[in-house]
Amino acid sequence: MDLASMDLDRRSFLTLLGAAAAAPTLARAAGARVVVTDVIGRTVELAGPVGRIVLLDARDVISMALLHPDPSLLVVGWADVARLDSDLLRRRYETRPDGSLIAEVGGQTPDTLSVEHILSLTPDLVVASAFMVPELGEGRLVGQLAAAGIPVVFSNAASNAAPPAGAAGDPIGDMGRAMRMWGEVLGVPARARTFTDFVADRLARVTGRLAGVAPTRAYLEVQSTYDDCCWAAGQRIWGDLLRLAGGSTLSAIEASWYVKLPIEQLMTEAPAVYIASGGAYGGDIRPGIAPGLDPAAARAGLARLVARTGFETLPAVRDGRVHGVWTGLLTVAPLNILFVEIAATWLHPALFADLDPAATLDEIGRRFLADPLPGPCWVSLVG
User: Which H, E and C letters describe 331-381, residue by residue?
Assistant: First the structure.
């Protein structure tokens, strides 16, 4: 059998699986209305089962894939595709059953969205994010879609707006609300609960052991490039996840999302652990850490990062505690548990000597994804 036939057979098989997975949705009475509660608390009524979805954040396709074996059957348009930061995942999901590519309706910023293009795709549902639609249920885009009878739900509440002072972030809780929403949209609420229960169990294994344990100071770099330094993750989302793993951000960091520190400040802070970020894009300026890439090349990228001026003085570098993660572990909410687990092993190696994040990744692939997620999703400079 040639490769083309194998691919066709796989697509046919996944189409059948998709029909089976969608059975709860299709079993709804004809014309039955579905009420969905989105992440920002809006209650949205759908006219019935959705068959044509536009994602204003392409990363939502991974949330869908955890609940549906082939989201390409349903997604007709998406935006902000570059933030997948993975050529493998883009190729995996961008081709629809008829061989066409999912239409791109915008880039990485709200001003790039094309309402006309979205309308031309005649979607049953548009899934937005607070970043791409800052008006949160109001404004031109949502109004035009509503006038055309197209409902909008929000899968993500994070935006560039500064949160209230002292407000604690809850990325895992936000993920749970998003997955419950997707369970309602796709007609598989029980499967969504199974996934969120899985994450809650894994998270409890980490946070339970960390009770009363002093956090380890870490430099988590939101943008790791060879010719620049030092873009540190802020207090929200990336910082929240670091704290869940038993780490603490640098004392100089007060910003919500990220801040550029002088190298002198980083040297003064003397972090015990350095966690860089990498991805599939911009391989000439940052480490290539993403599903399907070469781990050896990723380690070489980490070596280039710690060769930057001043890094040789950091305890993290002297002690060989230098690591890197694919950005998807921090920006794709259902995968955040993988960051928490792997970071916990780096921050508290003795406490979590028996914790196996690779087994968690394997279980996610085996139980929830039609196509498992390959490595490297993380890498260490040593070991």
Answer: HCHHHHHHHHHHHHHHHCCCCCCCCCHHHHHHHHHHHHCCCCCCCCCEEEC
